[in-house]
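# nightly structure sweep
# worker-07 picked up a monomer target from the shared queue
# config: single-sequence mode, recycle default, output format = structure tokens
# input follows
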Amino acid sequence: MRYEIIGNTVPAIELTLNPGESVYTQSGGMVWQTDGISMSTNARGGLAKSLGRMFTGESVFMANYTADKPGAKIAFAATVPGCIVPVNISESELIVQKGSFLCAEQSVDMKVTFTKKVMSGFFGGEGFILQKLYGSGMAFLEIDGDMVERTLAPGEVLKVDTGNVVAFDTSVSYDIETVKGLGNIFFGGEGLFLTKLTGPGKVYLQTQNFNDFIGRVVARVPHSN
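# output follows
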């Protein structure tokens, strides 16, 4: 399999497949394909895994695309302005926030995973359930805005607005920290909690929190009485 990232504002990832090679995505993620691609749809991993994906905000069903002839091409596009990041799951398993998974080779598997502390789930801003990508092969993540990659040393701490966390190595611990000080809580404008990531491991961040952006747009839409 070969891949090429096309475009800058709302990019797409175009994959060139050999006969028998196959990729999967959320239902509805494909934007174009050449002749020689077969599609099938299933609840990948069975009922339990598909229901788990539903709670993360992903599709219950996954679309699978398999090449029937050499050089068949298929493309998947980002849904908002940003970038697409290729990650090699063979090198490191990843914990991914909901909405960041775009597509992957069939050899990459995905399951829901729970944060270690209940507080992290209920107040983290991204839900109690995250996704774990494991296995081998390439996966592609959708990032809002620009991507920032940080490698944390053992014990090194990075505090991030939760909506700006995209993914991190399974070696990175994840927790929620309460903003200190009543004045900061009520007037700081940054919410009550921050995501605390502790190394070692790699962290992927995004410069835009699209949910915050939508909230600002909605707040400025005139409302009729």
